[in-house]
Design goal:
Elements (H helix, E strand, L loop, with lengths): L1 E6 L12 E4 L3 E3 L10 H5 L3 E3 L5 H4 L2 H8 L7 E5 L1 H11 L19 E5 L5 E4 L2 E8 L5 E8 L2 E5 L8 H7 L4 E7 L7 H6 L5 H8 L7 E5 L6 H11 L6 E2 L5 E3 L1
Parallel strand pairs: 3-4, 4-5, 5-6, 10-11, 11-12, 12-13
Antiparallel strand pairs: 1-2, 1-14, 2-3, 7-8, 8-9, 9-10
The structure holds zinc ion (ZN) (2 copies).
């Protein structure tokens, strides 16, 4: 399984792209602005999109991607998420007002997209690749994902503040090689981190104490302009085995 990071920022500007991860050629985890860097051919090949939650920085390219390649595809793109996330997409995004309802267009029988509920805690297998949804804690219902192949596993937190189930599932995963976890803000913004249900370096350090040693930890969703300062604060809290900053374009093979 080849995992390519398309976007790993908490915002936009210059080289920053919001959350999106391409798994092999056909699975997308979140559809942030990083999707806009894919070629038409790469976009056409995406059959499955797993969403962590409904926030725009994680879904914003979905309407454009479907509009751009929907007519060229034989099958609808399958969108997987928790029920609440899909309801938000139906009601507020693909509602025929902000954007066309591509779950009924061009025809209800052969639309550009189909919705599929994946409750938190459930796992799906796609050609021997396993995708498990894990509940996390954010201001809207949100999930992280555990991606597994025969060679190992990689976990992605999506957006979360302090949480429990995610770390429990990770500690029960023997072949866990990599963990991608968000840290959005500086410690000076701890209050904001708690209100918006994200993490700052001090909260991250507390979370990582829940994780058994072994996997490599990578940090994503950093606020543009504060990336270096956030990583410095993380290094101060976690001087040994300091997590790496996740980079756009980075590739993991598991
Ligand atoms: Zn969010
Ligand atoms: Zn986000």
């Amino acid at each position: 399984m080849k995992i390519r990071i398309l976007g790993a920022s908490g915002g936009i500007g210059a080289q920053a792209r919001t959350t999106s991860i391409l798994v092999d050629h056909d699975i997308l985890i979140d559809a942030g602005t990083g999707v806009g860097d894919l070629t038409l051919e790469e976009m056409r090949a995406i059959d499955h999109v797993f969403l962590t939650h409904s926030h725009l920085d994680h879904v914003t390219m979905l309407p454009f991607m479907l509009d751009t390649v929907g007519a060229d595809r034989r099958e609808p793109v399958r969108i997987y998420a928790q029920e609440a996330t899909l309801t938000t997409l139906r009601t507020h995004l693909f509602n025929g007002e902000l954007w066309p309802d591509f779950s009924r267009i061009p025809t209800p029988e052969a639309p550009f997209m189909t919705y599929h509920v994946l409750p938190a805690g459930r796992e799906m297998t796609l050609n021997q690749r396993r995708v498990r949804s894990i509940p996390v804690t954010h201001v809207v219902p949100a999930a992280g994902y555990l991606l597994s192949s025969a060679r190992g596993s990689l976990a992605f937190s999506g957006d979360t503040t302090t949480t429990e189930e995610f770390w429990k599932v990770l500690n029960a995963t023997r072949d866990l090689r990599h963990v991608i976890v968000e840290t959005s803000f500086l410690d000076a913004d701890e209050k904001l981190s708690r209100i918006s249900k994200h993490l700052c370096p001090s909260l991250l350090a507390g979370e990582l104490k829940k994780l058994n040693p072994g996997p490599q930890v990578h940090i994503t969703h950093l606020m543009p302009g504060s990336e270096d300062d956030i990583m410095r604060e993380i290094a101060r809290h976690i001087p040994n085995n300091t997590p790496h900053r996740l980079e756009r374009g980075q590739v993991f093979e598991i």
